[in-house]
Specification:
There is one protein chain. This protein is mainly alpha-helical and 190 residues long. The protein folds into two domains: 58 residues; 123 residues, Zincin-like (2-Layer Sandwich), CATH 3.30.2010. The chain contains nine helices and three strands. The chain has a three-stranded mixed beta sheet, sandwiched between helices. Helix 7 crosses helix 8.
Length: 190
Amino acid sequence: MREALGPPLRAAALTALIVGLVVLLLNPPSLGGLDDLMVLILGALAIILLTAWFTVALIGKEMPEPEFQRLVRRSEALAALPPPDQPPTEFDELVIDALDGLPDEFQEVLTHTPVIVSNRGHEFGAYGHYIGGTVARDGYPDRIVIYQDTLERDFGHAPDLLRAQVQRTVRHEVAHHLGWDEPGVRGLGL
């Protein structure tokens, strides 16, 4: 219950502080009567509750636990496989270049997050997948999966376009790892 109520209550408290300060600075209460004080308190309470509800609505819904556990088991099985005997493919090199192109701070965050190339993107209809908690809420093992099959299917006809989309996909999944939900990542242009 604490996990469910914690974020909205924190958002409400922060909003209450900000709204209270703004109201106090822009329109100091006259306290001319109990009616003015009640209007001020009820107005602030309404703004706080509306902002808290809106913040929680923007956070979005989490993936159902059974589906998440299935993805975790699958990604751990993939991560447990021995490294390939052959050198990295051209696509692997694109992913490596995209990771190397990230700022140093992001590369540090990814030191314990495996990035896996998979050919199962058609099953999910995706170019990439982030599996795990976030940097802020790290309750699950982290994995980033880049789907070679769907990226090459849609962008493989032009090498420069494929390289750009691999970079965009890597950045998109790293943003999920850093805590952004899908609308937030899209808001970043990824």
